[in-house]
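Long-time lurker. I teach an intro course on protein structure, and each term I like to show students one example going from raw sequence to a predicted 3D structure in token notation. This year I'd like something fresh instead of my usual example. Would anyone be willing to generate the tokens for the chain below so I can use it in lecture? Attribution to the forum is fine with me.
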Amino acid sequence: MLKIIEKTKIWFTISAIIIVVGLGFMATRGLEYGLDFKGGTVVQFNIGKDFNKADIDAIVKKYDKDFQSNKVNNTFIEIKSANLTSDNISSIEKDVKAKFKESSLTNQENIGAAIGKETRNKAIQAVLLATVAMLIYIGIRFEFKFGMAAILSIVHDIFVMLAVYSIFRIPIDSSFIAAILTVIGYSINDTIVVFDRIRENQKYARRMSVTELANASITQTVARSINTVLTVVITLFAVYAYVPSIRNFSEPLLIGIISGCYSSIFIATPFWVMLKKHGGKKKLQPAK
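-- Reply from a regular --
Happy to contribute to a lecture. Here you go:
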């Protein structure tokens, strides 16, 4: 049987280091918000044929060093920037047209800072609403201590994702928020598998301590959790590598899914054990 709970300090220390370093970067350098949150310009070109994305990036870099570009459906490219002016866009259009005769500007859209602020506020509200709803559901379905432990592990995953994005200066956009909500759902599902096994094992836990019960339940479910996350990670890595147009979504998913698997095993259950012991229940009673 795995001795996971006895090494709780190690697991918490690993997470604390990542989160504290991330908070340090956020405090000193802040988060790198994408166009969806800080406003700017979105430009789309139809090149008319398959092309090398690096050629377009080289043209845009002459007018703006800080931009994002995504190749869409082999013949389209989308450029996002907070600094491009109308004159810059006209110059870029001429340069692209000179290199690719069949190219054309198909879309130009300005996103105001006020819209970006509203999007950011709604994203925060969506995450908070999802978290509270899951706390209520798990509290009713299992018990309140299970719900608290699950929510703490979700908060852990969100902070880990923010830490990675802050440290590596990866822009945060609306895809990141969608990924967070997806990760929350995945992580809570993985955590519930362990909690459900704990509840089932309570039937035979008359003489088993909380720590022993948790270790036994994790041991019985750890292979399933790791195998499941490996299949998801392999798929996401393939999407990240070969489908650049949705890389902004697959990238945070990769980080969050790995963190969610870790937290389900090494964070959520140890938290539950701590809450259970804090409540003064050293032994578990059989489930009714």
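Some talking points for your students: Residues 281-288 have pLDDT under 50 and may be disordered. The beta strands are 40-46, 68-72, 76-81, 104-111.
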